[in-house]
Amino acid sequence: MSRRLLIVGRSGQVATELQKLTPPPGFVLEAWGRDRVDLCDPHMAAKLIASHEPAVVINAAAYTMVDRAETEPSAAFVINRDSPAAISRMCESRGIPYVHISTDYVFDGDKPAPYVETDRRNPKTVYGRSKSEGEDVVIASGASAAIIRTSWVYAAHGANFLRTMLRLAESHDELRIVADQMGRPTWAKDIAGAVLDVAVRAQAGDRDALGVFHYSGAGDASWADFAHTILANTSRFNIKTARIRRITTAEYPTAARRPANSRLDTTKIEQRLGIIPRDWREGCQLCLSELLD
Predict the structure, then answer these.
(1) CA 71 from chain center: how many Å?
(2) What is the DSSP letter of 115?
(3) Is there a catalytic annotation at residue 105?
(4) For the whole model, what pTM was predicted?
């Protein structure tokens, strides 16, 4: 009988890519969307998941509307903190490994170097606080858990920076893009592969696969660098491009403060688990090919 790798979340970028992967022999991937499990009702969600006896739970669902969270804190905390608390406690009680996806927003962005897993968390947004407290409750549950932080996720589907740049370039000759925020763009297909690898290892009892890890694309970029690379690679697809005008964060105010430094150091996951991130530029090109070919 196949063991069920249960993905909480079905339509998000990482959840979508997880469903495309081929699970190892003896496993089957099953994804539940909001029509199946309601994370606004944490205890009911945990009870429903328990009733289906998964071999491992991957939580790829989250409240990710960073700006809207500033005026909808209760929704952000229920989905990003309270549901992970209930689900991870259930997993602990039944000996089920739990894999949780988190974010660079748990940091304040003030560190001049890439963040390592043990750096102090100091989120400056409602979204970041809800995800940071989500990490706290997962750890406190005592479950056999892996927390994987990632950043600047993009895919050929869903709402993300890459698709936004392509859409805006259709109707604008010049795009004003922030150049003083640094990060590491991450292709959803790559983070999904890393998450599945960690989940399978955790289910097999590999203690090295438990704990907090960082995973993002290799190489640094500003949003303006990312935009330039996206549009520079569209010429072979014969679609309209646009010039990039580099601006400061102050010139593009948002409801939620974006971290100036979102770079995540991936040394731990590379050395402990042998999971090596792809260069973000290569991932960008492959994603564009998938989207536009």
Answers:
(1) 22
(2) B
(3) no
(4) 0.96
